[in-house]
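Whether sequence alone determines local backbone shape is best considered at the level of individual chains. When preparing material for the folding task, we compiled for one chain both its residues and its backbone structure tokens. No coordinates are needed to read the tokens, only the vocabulary itself. For completeness, the protein is quoted in full, as a sequence line and a line of structure tokens:
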Amino acid sequence: MEQNIDQAGLPEQAPEAARPPAGGETAGFLKEMARKLREREAQLQQEIQRARRRAEIIESYTEMLVELLDQRDEWLLVVDEETRQVVHCNKRTPGGGEDGAYCVRCLHRLPIQPRLLEWNGAERYQVWELEEEGERGSCYRIISFPIEWKERPSCVHIVMDITVEKMNARHLKDEIYQDMDTGIRSHQFLDEFMGRVLRERQDITLCYLDLEGVADINTSYGREVGDAYIQNFVEIVRKNFRSGDTFARIKDDKFCLMLTGNVKHLIERKMTEILTAFQRDDDRVFSHHCNFKYSILEVEGESNLLSLDKLLAEAEADIRRQKGKKPKKPRKQSRAFDFDEW
């Protein structure tokens, strides 16, 4: 391509607007740039100072929080998020050693420590529980949350020993599931247990027992004698069945037996043996009251559509029919048996 050449053989001069500033203009331009750089530097310094102050405030609050938590009896661990190392433990002495008065309790907690170190902080705040393996394992409730510790991303675990709390809860549950007067299962236990059995469509046999004479004995001889009468009946029934069979008290003088499988004839035979033992009691004070009625229901799991309440209602209706009729002689093979004429 040809270039425009003047008479001296040199290229044509660049336009005036494309020339760099010269003289005073260049000095002014550089001065303005320097001023803007100084302002920007000052602004950055201020932002750095604010960030530092903010970090110092956060750090001071973090240290104050941990210091307050250190004074509690709970076990507190601060774990570095990257190294998974324990960087603070409130049971360490200021010199870096372990609190000798507390180390025995810490040793009991060591089995759960690896699981604490695995917590990844995905949850911003989590309350969870861990239980040591074994029948007598301790139970812990843990509060975990992320924190910045010594300018490092970390997480805090506050560990509370709730073993006694769990034991008390289990004891309370046992009390709810147990009839305190007789020692057998309660109605609530039967409700929950039978709910699962019916959902699983198991074949079972229910025996509803109505103990007679309790109200009369309470009136004639007092409540203590009535309680002894009930307890005597319960013990005789328990002796005639396996410990794994479910025997529950539904009301004051109403009871229910539940056995797996269709075992109606077995229960009928057992009822005869129970009545014989019941009426053979050496204490003759209330011997004429030793009587009960029962009703047996065989439940086919696959075809059953009735709930426990409806099954018990059906058995109660059968008992009422028995009380309304006095059979002339005992019927050992009958579905519902009346002992009045035994």
